[in-house]
Amino acid sequence: MKKEPPGRSCWSAPAALLRTAMLGFNNGLLYVMLGMMGGCMIYYLVQKVSAHTFTAGGKALLTLVNIVCSILLLWYTIYQPTYFNLDRWTVSLLCIVIITLSLMNKDGLTAVLNNDVTSKLFAYLGSISLYMYMLHYPVAILVLRVMGKNTEATTYSFWTVFVPTVVITMVLSVITKIAMEKTILKKK
After folding, report:
1. Exposed, middle or buried by CB within 10 Å (0-12, 13-18, 19+), for 104?
2. Largest CA-CA distance found in the chain, in angstroms, rounded
3. Is 7 left (phi over 0), alpha (psi -120 to 50) or beta?
4. C-alpha separations of 21 from 10, 15, 25, 26, 29 in Å
5. Residue 91 CA to chain centroid, in angstroms?
6. How far apart are CA 98 and CA 110, in angstroms?
7. Which of 121, 120, 76 is nearest to 95 (CA)?
8. What does the pLDDT look like over 46-99, one tens digit per residue?
9. Residues 145, 98: Cα–Cα separation, whole Å
10. Which residues 6+ apart lie within 8 Å of 180 measured at CB?
11. Considering only CA atoms, which of 157, 154, 172, 34 is closest in space to residue 93?
12. Which of 93, 145, 169, 171 is most buried, judging by how many CB atoms fall within 10 Å of its CB?
């Protein structure tokens, strides 16, 4: 019988690694592929369902589903380690439901939020989204460095890390957009 090298055994690998090996590829790739497939399915679903005329009760039900999913997602974002301890698949499902309902534009919540002010706001956020993406990680690291080591006495929370990171990132993104438009992206 062949002897395994010291410290190496076919049973010593973590369970997640063994499951990944059984799938043949890592779960991240599976997650991305399912996301792409889900996006295509949502597109066709929205195309078909948008043509349907909903009754007042149907619109109320869609509004209720949108509000409940939005509250759960917001709750998860702010208070992660609580009663609603959602995994990434559940959070993804909540996002899919909210995005689908928003694209359908048939429920009351989307109708209230779909106006000129929010359209201009989201268009502007879209115009600075690349800058936000590029700056959010360095800003988060800076905020964590300024706050110091995370101990039991100084447990980081949503309000002490996430909010300052978002505010600083947004401000720097606006400044970066203005600087880019006045220099590199300046139209001749």
Report:
1. buried
2. 77
3. left
4. 12, 10, 7, 8, 13
5. 8
6. 10
7. 76
8. 888 888 888 889 889 989 999 999 888 888 777 766 555 667 677 778 888 888
9. 35
10. 131
11. 34
12. 169
CA distance 120 to 42: 25
Q: Is 70 in contact with 100 (CB distance < 8 Å)?
A: no
Q: Which residue do the tokens 């936000």 mark? A: 132
Taking the C-alpha atoms of 18, 23, 24 and 26 in order, what is their torsion angle to the nearest 10 degrees? -80
Structure tokens at 32: 């991305």
First to last CA, the chain: 77
8 A C-beta contact, residue 140 and residue 161? yes
Structural contact between residues 13 and 4, judged by C-beta atoms closer than 8 angstroms? no
Residue with tokens 């973590």: 14
Quote helix, strand, coil % in the chain, to nearest 5. Answer: 70, 0, 30
- Evaluate if pTM is beyond 0.70: no
What is the token pair recorded at 116? 């000129």
Which pLDDT belongs to residue 2? 54
Contact 46, 103 (CB under 8 A): yes
Distance CA 133, CA 125 (A): 11
Phi/psi for 2 (5° steps) reads -75, 135
